[in-house]
Design brief:
Helix content: 25-40%
Number of helices: 11
Largest sheet: 8 strands, mixed
Number of strands: 14
Shape: globular
Strand order of the largest sheet: 13-12-11-7-10-9-8-14
Structural class: alpha/beta
Length: about 400
């Protein structure tokens, strides 16, 4: 059994290498890494059960190079009505409206949030704008779900966002895709069942090769510090255990890709790869890597080791037996796709919608979102100081 699991894992890696080798740069006819629809595990003989017949009125903002605004399937969820959309570019706004089967459009988020008919907003804008856009949504009394990361390199913004969510009592979710990938999901279920025990060590990796620049609003993706976009890897501890990272020593590796070098990016960032060693709030250790300039297999992946068992992918080895079906996801509503990033899109949408309907915090709430994001912000500070160990601010669920 262990041998078969090992072969399956290596097969996945080799497939990833082949795919990325063929698409090392991105053109109009080539999919962006991770955005293709993905098969996902589903519990056998399970049927989706609605919790309410209410429809939440949504606004969706952002339809840039990633087309995220329509990629998570809000328009297909039976408990959602997309009543308005927005993008700064009129042609993209029209495309988003068509994709979401919505007639009402606004020229900006700032205008959309004034619409009193909207209850919740999906912020799928550029990463540098996530903080200000989420703050604007919350100020207008609406629930918010946001693409990653929560903030963009600022500890002060993280504190302000946390206080806003705490003060308003509104629902905030970070759309961290790794949380609902098959492997991370299975690890979380195994951990919650006590099968892993105390997590002693974890690893997370996010490899996204930018051999050529990826077009993005104001070039924000070109040369950004890798650990400013850390949640895809950090999820392999935070979204497994709910723990946080308390301190970090991070080393950066100068990029050899011309457009990623500090003289060619707006961030003056020297690193194409950053490798962080974290101490966890549970007393364990975690190594998390983010890299933009290493070709080969790509994507998000992780491994976890506890004092009762360990997992690579969805394969468990330990002191007890596990029901494989229990490590699979519940079905989505009929007609709704699991989507890309390892079949996570639809499940993040389902989680946020249910959190609002059931008046509870979502899985990836403000605390998990900031604990993953801020750990990377401090990790980059450590890398700039040649690996100096730094303390990391902590956030608790509200």
């Amino acid at each position: 059994m262990a041998s078969n699991s090992r072969r399956g894992f290596l097969r996945q890696l080799s497939m990833g290498a082949g795919i990325l080798g063929a698409h090392s740069s991105f053109g109009a006819d080539q999919p962006i890494q991770g955005f293709d629809d993905t098969k996902t595990t589903v519990q056998e003989n399970a049927v989706w059960q609605p919790v309410s017949d209410r429809k939440i009125r949504f606004g969706i903002v952002g339809y840039g190079v990633c087309r995220f605004g329509a990629a998570f399937g809000y328009q297909d969820h039976p408990n959602v009505e997309v009543v308005a959309v927005s993008d700064l570019f009129p042609d993209r706004c029209a495309e988003l409206a068509k994709a979401c089967r919505c007639e009402k459009t606004y020229p900006s988020l700032e205008e959309l949030v004034k619409d009193d008919s909207i209850e919740a907003v999906y912020v799928a804008t550029d990463a540098p704008s996530h903080f200000k856009h989420c703050m604007e949504v919350l100020k207008h009394g609406k629930h918010v779900v946001c693409a990653v990361p929560s903030v963009f390199g600022s500890l002060e913004d993280a504190d302000a966002l946390y206080e806003m969510v705490k003060t308003t009592g509104l629902t905030y979710q970070l759309n961290e895709t790794s949380a609902f990938k098959d492997d991370c999901f299975a690890m979380r279920k195994a951990y919650e069942g006590g099968n892993l025990g105390r997590l002693v060590y974890s690893e997370g990796e996010y490899y996204h090769y930018f051999g050529t620049p990826l077009d993005a609003y104001k070039e924000w993706r070109t040369g950004l510090p890798p650990q400013w976009y850390p949640t895809h890897s950090n999820a392999y501890h935070v979204c497994v255990t709910g723990e946080s990272f308390t301190e970090v020593s991070c080393m950066g590796i100068p990029s050899v890709v011309d457009h990623l070098k500090p003289e060619n990016n707006v961030f003056k960032n020297p690193f194409g790869t950053e490798v962080a060693l974290f101490r966890t709030s549970g007393g364990g250790m975690s190594r998390m890597t983010v890299s933009w300039d290493t070709p080969g297999f790509g994507g998000e992946m992780g491994r976890v080791r506890g004092d009762k068992g360990s997992m690579t992918g969805t394969a468990f080895q330990g002191l007890s037996e596990l029901d494989a079906n229990a490590l699979k996801k519940a079905p989505l509503p009929p007609g709704m796709s699991a989507g890309g990033h390892g079949g996570s899109h639809g499940y993040l949408t389902e989680e946020f919608v249910h959190a609002i309907l059931e008046n509870r915090k979502p899985l990836v709430d403000i605390a998990w979102g900031l604990n993953m994001t801020v750990a990377g912000v401090v990790a980059h500070q450590s890398a700039l100081k040649d690996g100096e160990t730094l303390k990391i601010p902590q956030y608790k669920s509200v």
